[in-house]
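Thread amino acids onto this structure.
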């Protein structure tokens, strides 16, 4: 995306390359990936040449594949563009959230898992409900009346089974929440609580993220 919420920074720089504590957000994300992950598929579009120049064919010791996103929008659309390159189980994350490596290491221990946290404004996110055994029941994208304050960070470990399920559509965007909810009806999806999750979606989030990194 064009990162309109991060303007004026994104007028000349793609969102993933905006620096937090002297390092592009994307590099923070990649450095948090478990060591077992040896390939990264980057779905790019806006100012994509800058991302390609920064990361190259190998980034932080991991092979990089670039996928150009078309006109469809949303997390499920981005995943669909990457689908031809996905061969097995995979971790999906965003390029504008700071994460803890230990949380991602917990995620990949499961066949299917998703990273969650609590938030005071859950209506702005995918709201999570759980089964009695603690596995995922549903993720509802930006409901008007959230039933809980537990939200999805969007970070998940999935298998190609996810492509058997339909995305949730809202305001012309396709969201993975519907796909993961469908998957959870047929297969157990583990829920991992994030020890650290700091989205960087607005300019005022940058100093908050830098302070959070110091305390991490």
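Threaded sequence (216 positions):
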């Amino acid at each position: 995306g064009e990162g309109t919420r991060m303007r004026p920074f994104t007028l000349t720089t793609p969102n993933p390359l905006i620096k937090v504590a002297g390092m592009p957000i994307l590099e923070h994300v990649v450095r948090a990936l478990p060591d077992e992950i040896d390939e990264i598929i980057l779905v790019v579009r806006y100012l994509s040449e800058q991302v390609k120049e920064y990361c190259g064919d190998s980034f932080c010791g991991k092979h990089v594949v670039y996928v150009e996103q078309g006109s469809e929008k949303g997390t499920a659309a981005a995943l669909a563009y990457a689908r031809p390159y996905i061969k097995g189980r995979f971790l999906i994350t965003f390029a504008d959230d700071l994460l803890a490596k230990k949380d991602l290491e917990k995620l990949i221990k499961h066949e299917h898992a998703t990273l969650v946290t609590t938030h005071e404004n859950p209506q702005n996110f995918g709201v999570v409900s759980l089964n009695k055994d603690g596995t995922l029941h549903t993720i509802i994208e930006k409901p008007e009346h959230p039933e809980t304050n537990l939200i999805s960070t969007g970070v998940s470990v999935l298998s190609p089974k996810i492509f058997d399920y339909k995305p949730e559509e809202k305001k012309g965007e396709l969201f993975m929440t519907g796909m993961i909810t469908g998957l959870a009806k047929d297969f157990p999806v583990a829920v991992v609580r994030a020890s650290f999750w700091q989205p960087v979606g607005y300019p005022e989030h940058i100093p908050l993220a830098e302070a959070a990194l110091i305390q991490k």
